[in-house]
Design brief:
The protein has 345 residues and is an alpha+beta fold. The protein has helices at residues 2-7, 15-37, 41-45, 50-62, 107-123, 131-158, 163-178, 181-196, 210-240, 244-252, 257-287, 299-310, 316-341, and strands spanning 67-74, 77-84, 91-97, 100-103.
């Protein structure tokens, strides 16, 4: 409770922190104000041409779908599109902003409309909120967790006095650090099932999601095995930074090697390895984008699919911004954690 009060004690904040907090509040207030001016959904849908309206009304009456109607509400700005297919295909696009509805066929309005549309699709708004972002973050969290657990055992093996175990762990670390992560992912997803005659999707009941579930498991395995090698070096360096006198003191008190490591050395090492683990998390967050190679629907894959369907390379701009926002949030969080718990403060 005291530490929480200390965090929210504005008087003790630095000028830089106050500037960032009040800047964020100001931006939020401005966006909220703009959201109140945004045209209503019905006004956006009524912006289409008379002929397009007649086609939409006919579709409703005859229970058919010649016109694809899209409406996307993105807090302070909205987007609507009407499109038909066939020999006489037509498309009408509109952007709603600050109480006005603008044709989004060319110029700034077109770019703004495409940015809203691509971001909306990438985040999965309206279907599975933040689908791509959630998958990216989930993969990163699980990879870091499993990689750290594996890294602890590899680090202990590498500093072990047993020569065979030491060579095995050292070889593992060298292999996964010396080969590209993308190739490792492809080997685990394609090559290993090809050799042993199975498919990752067979691990799950037959459904439309089985392929993606199998790809998710393969990705977790590939990224965790790779992260384990890097985490092993982080853990090893942290363990070896602990003063040798503590090993001798533990031995004098009758502690076994296992008790010494689990009760004395590793708990102290955690604070020393914290900055490096946080940095590894950020690196994994960006490396996870490689799952596009096996069509797992993260932010990068979704943006690539949108680009293929829409034919516009502008889609990569919102993808870049989404990654930047996610990375900035986790960087801010890890800075707070490091300042609170790291030994290097």
């Amino acid at each position: 409770m005291k530490s929480f009060k200390k965090i929210i004690n504005i008087k003790k904040w630095s000028k830089h922190t106050k500037f960032k907090v009040f800047g964020a509040i100001l931006v939020l207030l401005v966006l909220t104000f703009l959201a109140t001016l945004k045209p209503e959904k019905q006004e956006m849908l009524n912006s289409s041409s008379p002929s397009m309206k007649r086609m939409v009304e006919a579709d409703v009456k005859l229970d058919r779908k010649r016109v694809t109607v899209t409406y996307e509400d993105f807090y302070f700005i909205s987007y609507a599109s009407f499109s038909t297919s066939g020999a006489h295909a037509r498309e009408e696009k509109f952007v709603g902003f600050m109480g006005n509805v603008y044709h989004a066929d060319k110029g700034t309005a077109k770019i703004a409309g495409e940015m809203v549309d691509y971001t909306y699709q990438m985040l999965g708004v309206g279907e599975n909120f933040l689908y791509g972002a959630k998958l990216t973050i989930l993969l990163t969290v699980l990879t870091t967790l499993f990689g750290l657990i594996l890294g602890i055992f590899l680090a202990l093996g590498k500093i072990s006095k047993k020569v065979f175990l030491k060579k095995i762990c050292s070889g593992y670390i060298f292999f996964f650090r010396a080969t590209p992560l993308l190739i490792q992912l492809l080997v685990i997803y394609y090559t290993i099932p090809g050799i042993f005659g199975f498919a990752w999707r067979d691990l799950f009941p037959k459904s439309n999601e089985a392929v993606f579930q199998g790809a998710f498991i393969a990705s977790i395995i590939a990224f965790s095995l790779n992260s384990g090698a890097y985490c092993a070096e982080i853990v090893r360096a942290a363990i070896q930074s602990i003063d040798k006198g503590q090993y001798e003191a533990a031995k004098a008190l009758g502690f076994s090697y296992r008790q010494t490591m689990s009760m004395i050395i590793i708990p102290q090492s955690i604070r020393r390895m914290l900055p490096s683990i946080c940095n590894e998390f950020i690196m994994i967050l960006k490396d996870v984008s490689l799952v596009f190679a096996i069509s797992l629907m993260d932010i990068t894959t979704i943006s690539k699919n949108i680009m293929t369907n829409e034919g516009s390379y502008l889609v990569y701009i919102p993808a870049l911004i989404i990654y930047l926002i996610i990375t900035a949030l986790f960087t801010w969080l890890f800075n707070k954690i490091e300042n609170r718990f790291s030994v290097y403060e």
